[in-house]
Structure formats: C-alpha cells, structure tokens
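go over this record:
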Amino acid sequence: MRIRMPKLMLALVLALGLPCAGAAADEVPSAKLKLQSSAALVLDQGSGRVLYGKNTHAIVPIASITKLMTAMVVLDANLDPNEPVAITEDDVDNLRGTHSRLKVGTALAREDLLRLALMASENRAASALARAYPGGRESFVQAMNLKAQLLGMSGSRFSDSTGLSSANVSTAEELSRLVSEAYRYDKIREHTTAAGYEVNAGGRRLAFRNTNGLVSSRGWDIGVSKTGFINESGRNLVMQATLAGRAVVIVLLNSWGKYSRQGDAQRIRKWLEVAAGVAPAPRRTVSGRARRHLSSSATGGDPSG
C-alpha cells in the first residue's frame, strides 16, 4: 500500500486542528438545528470548523460507511483496475444473509466491483475486493487499520471490508476525517455520486442505483456520498457537499427512521441556506405533501447499505 506524504500531513493537521465537538461557527445558529440522528457532525471543509456537533465522540458501529476505507485501501495499492475478479463462495454473506445479484462465478473488472461497492453498497463486491488484495483479507484489514491510524482515527477499528460486522466502529468526528480524505480520490468522488450503473454479469445486464437518492435530487451538489445500515448501527449517511456556497462534510449516525437520515440532511441544507440568506426561513411544521416528497426521493437500505 502506498500512502502519499501530503495526505498524511493533512490528516495530522486535521487531527490537531479540529475545534471541540459541538463548537459552532459564529454565523450559524446551531441551536436552531434539530436532528433525528443520534450522533451528527457538520464540518466546514475549508476552515476545519465544526458548525454543528452532537455526540461526536461516541464510538459506534458504522456499517457500510466502512466501504469508503475499503475503496481507499484498494486505490492506494494501485492494482490493475481492469483485472477480472470473480465472486466466490467466500464472498457470500453468512453473517446476516444479505441478498446480492452478483452470483457466485460472476467475474467483473476490479473497477466495476469498486463502483458497485461504493455506489450500490454491494457487499459481495466489497468482499471480493479484499479477497483479491495482495496477501488476502487479513492483509487488507491490516491496511485498513493502518490507514485509520495515519488519519488520526484512534477510536476507529475495522474488521472486514463490507461493514456487515458490528466490530467496524468509529465516531462522527473521525468519520469526518475519513470523508475529507475520501474526497481527495477522483474515483471515490465519481463512483459515490453516480445515480446508477449497469454491468454485464455473465451475459446478463444488471442495473444498480445509488443507495443515497439525494445524489440525483435537484439542488444538491454532492462530492462524496455513502450510506450504511445494520441493526446495531441504525441508518447512517456521510457526505461531502457544497451547500449555500460552503463546502461541508456531513456525518449522520443512527438515524431512527427509514428516511430520517435524508431528512436530517435536508434540515442541514435548509439551516445553512437560511444562515447564508439564500432561502426563506422554514415553517414551523412540515406538510404531509412535503413529507411524502422527501420519502419518495430518498432510498432505503438493506443491511450494510
């Protein structure tokens, strides 16, 4: 695995320079932001200031947010993106019994597996990427944890490449570093924000879509996106986005309802727009029509998605 020094230096600066969790920028009244997620963080990407923080140091399972680290380890290794990697019985989820349309024996280019793991949260794709890594899964997990240490993610641990294991844990604060680092990778930005993608799997055309419906929603400028869900973690969402002219990192963990992580993201967007004077103040109540619109634009997730 090759790690470039500028990334390491940036990570160390972030590790030392982030303000205390819960600190807010002067111009953004954080008391007016009410989120449903159990832990949350909004970070101004340019200054490193925390605009909003809630339980930012709680160490919790992160489900498929793990796949951002998976992607960075794969890309750092500079492996052939066009090399075919076959799905095997070892990639079948025997822990939670999650479904996959990538049948055993399907061979796809490493690049396509990476795209499906990031965009559609495909667990067998993420598993195959780790299995095909030099040294196999054990070496892959070691590389994940080394990368976390280099990013200053001292409270984070990784045990597999999919996020299906509840032993993959982190904090909202540390995940903001993970997202900021992931944003530096062109392929991660491209794959996590694609609305959909088709692959030829053994003569069959399979269409996949992004697990975060916000990437194709009007008014959203998203640079990195990843969802995650297992029972232990609840529904998670992390993003890099430009809202009201401000580049921010958003971390939402353990949202209680099927659509509440997207709802929290919409609340953050409105909060920043109002603070910037580019949107009218929201009404005190949300109409049933607005709730239905939000539900129809958001995408649910199966385990680890």
